[in-house]
Amino acid sequence: MPYFETRDDVRLAYEDYGTGRPIVFVASWALGADMWEYQVPFFVEQGYRCVLVDRRGHGRSDRPATGYDLDTLADDLADLIDLLDLREITVVGHSAGGGEVARYLQRHGEDRIAKVALVAATLPYLERTEDNPEGVPEEVCEATVQALRDDRPAWFANRAQGFFATHLGNEVSPALIDITLRQCLSATPMGTIGLWRSAYHTDHRPSLRKITVPTLIVHGAADQSAPVALTGRRTAQLIRHAVYKEYPTGGHGLFVTHKDDLNNDLLELAEQ
């Protein structure tokens, strides 16, 4: 397991598989590199190089008290990309990882990025404000923070079935649900809450309008974590020439339940 140090001396774990054109996978809120187990082998077999990172406070990385804002996390991603000198990257971000990707593009530009995939991303802007009346009220955000502080394991466990939209016939074993919960709980409480708040308060609308590279947006119509009308459909309206794909039975965990469809759609993007 290799590690690297960020510009503020935080030690982060990353994984690097295969050769060929690079795909960088950016994990969901509360999850780490392990979430991509159904994507990485597929793309390595297709001749791609797959790079993954455990963001600070997640997985096997250092657990600092600070740095869970999207600016810092985007800079962490930039440090890894620069260290490995990756170019012509297809970058894939899930959920809050999509926010990290958008923030990376805003802060570091598209010089190293060839294509972008935003999967069930919590974009473009979640906070309810005067110019974003469809957003989520702040009291809802803070109620979630309080619930995480009161009983974090119960909060995740109570949402597992909805995460995978099993009520629509998506088959997910109890063992797989259990390991996903364990992965979520391996993130620090500080990191979990810090990233939750940052994802909620960050307005990505200006930066999304500036994306010029080919972009794929994938979202589940049954996503309870990032409702599609608030996120995926609005994001597709902001990015010029984006390809938008909506999975009718997809929940937030479509990287598991719809892995074959997702892999094929990501492959189509990467091979453009």
UniProtKB/TrEMBL annotation:
UniProt-listed InterPro entries: AB_hydrolase, AB_hydrolase_1, AB_hydrolase_fold
GO molecular function, one term: hydrolase activity
A Pfam family this chain is assigned to: Abhydrolase_1
Highest rank taxon of the organism: Bacteria
Start and end residues of each AB hydrolase-1 domain: 22-258
Keyword field: Hydrolase
Protein name, UniProt field: Alpha/beta hydrolase
Native species: Rhodococcus spelaei
